[in-house]
Prior knowledge:
Number of helices: 7
CATH class of the largest domain: Mainly Alpha
Strand content: 5-15%
CATH topology of the largest domain: Helix Hairpins
Shape: rod-shaped
CATH architecture of the largest domain: Orthogonal Bundle
Structural class: alpha+beta
Number of strands: 12
Radius of gyration: 55 Å
Amino acid sequence: MRGRRAAGRGLWSACARIALRLGVLSGQCRAAFLRCRRTHAPDFGRSGARIGRSGLGPAGRQVVKGIPGRRALWPLVAVVSLWLLVGGVVHAVDEEASEREIEALRSKITASRERLGDAARSERDLLRHIQDLDQGLEALRVRVDRSRRRAEESAQTHARVEAERIASVQRLAATRRAMEKRAVALYKAGAAGPLQVLFASTDLPEMLVRMGGLERLLVHDSELVARSIRESARVGVLEWEADEARKDSDAAHQRLARRNTLLSAERSARGEALEDLRRDQTRERSLLAELEGAAQNLKEVLAKFRAERAGFGGGSFAARKGGLLRPVGGPVRRPFGRLVDPRYRTEIFHKGLEIQARRGDGVRAVAPGRVRLAGWFRGYGRLVIVDHGDGYFTVSGHLADIYVEVGDVVDEGHVLGTVGDTGSLEGPGLYFEVRRGSGPLNPAEWLAKG
């Protein structure tokens, strides 16, 4: 019981001191409390010793009469407790917003890793297709070589046949000349020519010799005619074979050339797709590294800022909501909030505004504050963070030049740097955020309408 009373007196004393600091005591209560505190400084509200009416004397009892009783202070205790609770809740909200942002970065990292996994699988599939195409091209090259050899053989055959054809034509021409001579001789001899040769013999042996000569002459003439017919037929066959061999060779070459063109084109297309995929993988790995680095840097910076809570009074900043000076003139090219990535069709949360501006335009502080960070920040290029107090920060990124240093005190309108495109893929512009703790706020709701 005695311990609970001591604790109650301690709470009563602590609440009274807090009420005094907050200015919620009336003038009479305030004066009485201060007189009592000066009179009993060693005991009042410190050791928890009981202050009774009998130990104070008349003057002391008169002072105590001016101090509200414990029951009267219970509303004060409730107010102070509520104030402390609200402060804790605000701090918890900031911490929760930080955790949400870090969790969002983790989700992006997971999505990036999944895209890398999909890209790796696609790369393996493309490599398999390219290997199949390479095997097809190799088989086609074998067939082309075989066809080329056949074409060479056909060409040799064609040359041989052509030589034979020419020889046959020449023999045919010689046979025809011989036949023409025989025809002329027979014409000159007349119808009785052979009989005259036969009966011009003086005796029987000479007649028999002449009959043998006539017989051989007839056989020779018959062979000339037959050979002429054969040579003509041979020439026709050889010409047909040569023509067919040439046609087959040309057709085979054309088929193989078309097939080779198709396979080469497909392999080239697959190769380009593989190169594009690998470039995408490189960009995705770079993006993943940026996200992981940004998440780590953000955690470190926020931890540092939370450890350095001291700053300017933020009441004035909160009161400026909707009327803050615009950091730079220009239209908004990417708003705050959830957006769909046009390339990967994934949903991302954009934590600030991207304002289109000319390179070199001055970037102004939107309110008084102290520079917390000024330099390169991965993913944002050259960046300036200004602490406006009470957990409010503004972030200005993609700067070309920075004119302030960490620790500088800046007024509203102070030029922090110039517009650039460092860390940006969309050309000159300003990336601007408003944060409470580590939680992003919609800058459009804080900036004055431009």
